[in-house]
Specification:
By secondary structure, the chain is α/β, with parallel strands linked by helices. The protein is 41% helix and 20% strand. The protein starts with a strand and ends with a helix.
Length: 322
Amino acid sequence: MSRATREAYRDSLLPLLKRHPELMCLDSDTGLFNADHAAAAGDQYLNLGIAEHNLMGMAAGMAACGRVPFVNTMAAFATSRALEAIKIDIAYNRLPVRIMATHGGLAAGHLGPTHQALEDLAVMRVLPSMTVVVPADAAATEAFVEQSLHLPGPLYVRLGRKPTPELPAAPPPVIGQAQTLREGGDLVLACCGPYPVLACLTAADVLARQGIEATVLNMHTLRPFDTETLVAAARPVPLVVTLEEHWRGGGLGGAVAETLAEAAPTRVLRLGMPDQFVDEVGNQEHLVAHYDLTAERVVRAVRTALDTAARPGKPDRKELIS
């Protein structure tokens, strides 16, 4: 079954509004909430139009007065156009604003680099007091919306646009706790987001048929980062590979490399978008395949790294980051 994470958010928020009068839904004309949804939310829904900076400022003001605003906008605009307001008005004051950022990663691929968000995780995870999560499917999104009711301070949730497959049966996701989706003793695959998580699960199946057993960690929370689970999985193995729908710098790969450099030094290969703006036209599925954020790439990277480690001499750097 496939459902869109942004729609799962909307459909889980609406009934919560009725039970929690302190909640507000602030929209930026995203189209996610139609007239029927707005009517169901009543006075707890406001559409401020395409004015993201004002949106964040108003959300901060409401939060300072005891409300808990859920803010709907596209990830690219939340983390660039409105960043100053998020930093100063929301994060600095540790206010309980829930930034529900749709069209994360390449989800707005058809609209080009202006609407793609390949830097958002790097930007948001460095802000003090900010919680940053990336649901891998609709069920996780629903869980995180419910958990956010009891979460102190601000929250950034990266959502998609179109339906994506549900994950196989897994432990219930909890903000701040990595999900161990598969256990293996040869390497660790760390990932976040719908396409990367599914790609790593598929890659783990392929590698298992080749006699290589991988632990797969869904690192859905980038802040606070689950250092304990990552270190415990990484310490016994010679290789950790990360995969994300994000530029290679500053996102999940950066968080994993930083953590292991301090706590359990080991070899980390960061797989993600190349260091360039997207110059290919197409939808999310096309761009994910074009830039090779795939199970096949994970398998190639693992085999190259392990084969190189088994040979004498220094590894070829180009092989390790291709």
